[in-house]
Amino acid sequence: MKRRTILTGVGLGIGGVCAFGAANFYHSLLNFRRRKPLIIGGATVVKRLLDLQLIEAFIKHHPEADLLIEGGYSFGGLIALERGAIDLAMMSNDFSSATRTNFLEYLIGLETVALIVNENSVIKDISTTNARKVFRREITNWKELGGPDSPIRVYSRLDDSNTKRTIEQILLEGGLIHESAKMLSSSKAMAQQVSADPLALGFISQQGYFRTKNPAIRIRSLSIDGIEMDQRSVGLALYPLVRQLFLVVRTDASEISKKFVTFVLSDEGQRLLADSGAQRVS
């Protein structure tokens, strides 16, 4: 009798454990089914701007999103989107949907880069051609640009810098900044170095330029081909060092993909993009 009671208790205990395990499994299965996959791929320059703060904020608003983001190239992202391998493609500058009626493009931001000199420099303007020659070290003396007979000291950024990529892809037409340029780690370091060096030529994002501009930082942006870097020239696509940033989806995009685009274009999303270095478009 005693043995039967013990066995009954053990059976009830095992049954309870199994029921608890089954309930946990069912709960996990429901949570898994509620997850919404969202795979984003394409231009690394866009990924870096989304990665900093915006992805984290989106997941807080949409915890159901099972999000994966991978950088690479614009064209590769477009192919992956066309084949259904990803849900959203990140593109920069070179996107055209003219022949693709099954895609929707969204301009999410602009990346604008200023060429900067010391505030005391006599140089106010530089042509695109001469700027390209300076960064290639084909022009090495300020005298060739109408300045003093002194060497041009070129400052650059580390290879993972978005602004450096813009200079190389747009101004240098895919070429590289000459290896003799001194590498700096941040926009702040760039502003400080150019401020301290009357023979310097460097570059900085528009956001970085306005963030670091104060009485202690004596830098000035150059106009390029006579065009100043301001909101009007950037908005009208007159200023040359501007990269357009896009998100692209298929016309049959998932709901979570649409929610991501909506968030990026919202006031919060645009503010976070601006904090990461892009110029907002809405």
CATH class of the largest domain: Alpha Beta
Q: What is the beta-strand fraction?
A: 15-25%
Mean of the pLDDT scores? 86
Give the overall form.
elongated
Helix content: 40-55%
Computed CA radius of gyration, to the nearest angstrom: 26 Å
Task: Characterize the biggest β-sheet.
Answer: 9 strands, mixed
Unreliable stretches: 1-8, 14-33
Total discrete domains: 2
Count the E strands: 11
What structural category arises from helix and sheet content? alpha/beta
- For the record, the CATH architecture of the largest domain stands as 3-Layer(aba) Sandwich
The string of secondary-structure elements, in order, is: HEHHEHEEEHEHEHEHEEHEHH
Distance between the termini: 79 Å
The CATH topology of the largest domain, please? D-Maltodextrin-Binding Protein, domain 2
Within CATH, the superfamily of the largest domain carries the name Periplasmic binding protein-like II
Count the DSSP helices: 11
